Amino acid sequence: MSWGLHSFLLGCHILFAAVWVGGVLFIGWGVYPVVKKMPPSRQQTFLHALMKWSHWPLTAAGSGVIFTGFLLGTVLGPIREWESLWRSDYGQIWLFSLIVGLAVLAWGALVGYRQAMKVLSDDSLWRRAESGDTRPLMKAMRSIILVESLEAVGFIVLICLMLLF
User: Fold this and answer.
1) Where do the TM regions start and end (predicted)?
2) Where are the domains of the chain?
3) How far is it, in rounded angstroms, from Cα 16 to Cα 6?
């Protein structure tokens, strides 16, 4: 029974991770470069709607990754007591993965999303870009890219940690 449950949770863990990481990276590396070819007013409308719509599903997928990872390491895994976290390689990697996962989720959901919505809601930036002065908008969009790139770095760290298991 526990082996079947373990396999099911591992499958869910991988699926949630694919949705979370894939969704964030697809928006950043797939959608955004194409949207940049649109006129600024359409960019603002599209990106605002996309961010608003995708925020909760991607946050839920990230939460699913963390929750299933927690269960896989504890209830269905080798971590049965606090000492396992400090005295085993698995426990140390698992704890570090949990901390990084929580930090990446919080960063994306609280910092990155808010930064993006702040820029996407600033109508003056978009009006200036529509009238030909794109520099302030480009600077604001670079700030989003910089903030969101830390989420991508966190994903790379998490993938490297998973390869250690």
Assistant:
1) 6-35, 56-79, 91-113, 144-164
2) 2-163
3) 15
